[in-house]
Amino acid sequence: MKTLRQHYNDSKTFKVFAQRYINYLKDALNDLDLKTLDLIRKEFENTKKQKRTIFVFGNGGAAATAITMANDLGFDIMKKSKSKKTFNIDCLNSNQSVITAIANDTGYENIFLNQLKMKFKQGDVAVILSASGNSENLIKAAQWLKKKGKIFGIMGFDGGKLKKYCKNYLIIKSLKSDYGPVEDVQLIINHIFAHWFQNKF
Prior knowledge:
The chain is α/β, with parallel strands linked by helices. Helix content is 49%, strand content 12%. It has one domain: Glucose-6-phosphate isomerase like protein, domain 1 (Rossmann fold, 3-Layer(aba) Sandwich), CATH 3.40.50.10490.
């Protein structure tokens, strides 16, 4: 991994802090593997052609991005393009009743796994958003998914345990514990996909 520019936490003034944070994001964005990004784009298109479902999920800030992604690759494309059929995309972070019931009855580590057991069909795909790639609830879901469909990961740090389960993955260049910049770039990646498809459907 290339060395990131000087870390923003070393700044003595807010202006310097802000500029270093921006520079850090520039480094992360410039380092994105666009070939892999395009492979994921192609898989999304294949999923649509085959009338399969994309399941997207994550924890914390990644959960918020997953919810946004379900909107941006669904309704937002339909609204901004001529297509009446966009992606069939389902965010596993959206239904708090289901999440809390699973967490209460079988453990928080199963909140995604049990939803997938109810919904996932052979040929569907999963997009997992994570910074560390080591959250137990994500790993359990990925282990179950491995033999049933394609997993695409968008992770930070070194990709963690999750990367070994993914067909394709993007690792956002970042220092460990820098969750904010990873989540920033995950949202930008979502918008790259969304704006591309708005103009292609």
